[in-house]
Amino acid sequence: MASPKTHVLFSFVILCFALSCAMAHPPSKGVKGAYYPSWAFSTFPPSSIDTSFFTHVYYAFLVPNNTTFKFVIDDETSTLLFNFTSTLRSKRPAVKTLFSVGGGGEGPARFSRMASTSASRLTFIKSSIEVARKYNFDGIDLDWEFPQNKKDMENLAILLDQWRVEVKKESWTTKRKPLLITAAVYFSVDFFLSGEFRSYPVPSLNKNLDWINLMCYDYRGSWDTSATGAPAALFDTKSNISTSYGLRSWIKAGAIRSKLIMGLPLYGRTWKLKDPNVHGIGAPGIGVGPGDEGTMTYREVEKFNEENNAKVVFDIATVSTYSVAGNSWIGYDDTRSVSMKIGYAQAQRLRGYFFWAVAGDLDWKISRTAKQLWIAS
């Protein structure tokens, strides 16, 4: 078996080759997505989005009723939805819009109940299609975080089968282009870190989804302050908690490469160092660092680095960046790490990438870098 150092060196060679290919060709087709959090509307309205960097933007989030599983849209939300789709359709270039259902703050129980019977699934599906058409969305994204057991996974497969049938039926009846169906999923095809071991129903995802958004981030953070870590490490020689492992697991399970989308974070995670002089990845920590509960957008990170004269370090082993100022430590992605991740995604022949979340960029630096490097796989 190759040593960790050999693995990193080999991976680096692959990345350099992919990047050289990217720089030798103009940007081409592929999914270049970004999630738009609805709570950012007052400070970052949809009109603020530079659509030249994206092909698809997801409105996050809508949640069905807890008992009927229908979407109940109040007047304020209705105005936001119409504003979102009309604004992004009128932009040049225009982008496709989807609304995302659920989110990390929602929890899995509601979706487990919804997916458990044919009747509740159908109610949810029909309501989602009605919302998409009423507010002029191009599709629907399911962000169920996360199915908790084998039965949930089985019901997810049935839900997607049923959803695709209804989308096709509605398209045939109305003579309109079929709605897109996508899903945001765990970075790995199976859940091996906590809870019951379970795996996504890959055949159903392959058959029914237009593409699959892999959330390749939140590997390390405030839930473990004992040591710093790369929140979205491309590689990790000490564990399977990395994007490269997650992608390999999906591909090994039979996921169609051209349906896989690599998720990229426009935010970092922060720690308070035990010793400011010991600050590498894995350095001892004693709590969360600056930001909102140990989280800072890329925009905030750059501002913090400048104001605090922070030391910025690029870590080739994990393909990530961290900065340190005093006992404050921030792990994040910058243009260097994103460039290499885009190269890796293309070397793996993926469909594209997406960002969480669009308002976190600074002067479109990372979004621009990603778009410029993306070429046809």
Structure, described:
Helices cover 36% and strands 20% of the residues. The chain is built from 10 helices and 14 strands. It has helices spanning 4-24, 75-90, 109-114, 118-134, 150-174, 202-208, 243-252, 298-307, 335-347, 365-373; strands spanning 31-37, 56-62, 96-102, 139-143, 180-185, 211-214, 260-265, 267-273, 285-287, 295-297, 311-315, 320-325, 328-332, 352-356. It starts with a helix and ends with a helix. The relative contact order is 0.15. Residues 21-28 have low confidence and may be disordered.
Topology:
Layout: H1 4-24, E1 31-37, E2 56-62, H2 75-90, E3 96-102, H3 109-114, H4 118-134, E4 139-143, H5 150-174, E5 180-185, H6 202-208, E6 211-214, H7 243-252, E7 260-265, E8 267-273, E9 285-287, E10 295-297, H8 298-307, E11 311-315, E12 320-325, E13 328-332, H9 335-347, E14 352-356, H10 365-373
Parallel strand pairs: 1-2, 1-14, 2-3, 3-4, 4-5, 5-6, 6-7, 7-14
Antiparallel strand pairs: 8-9, 8-10, 8-13, 11-12, 12-13
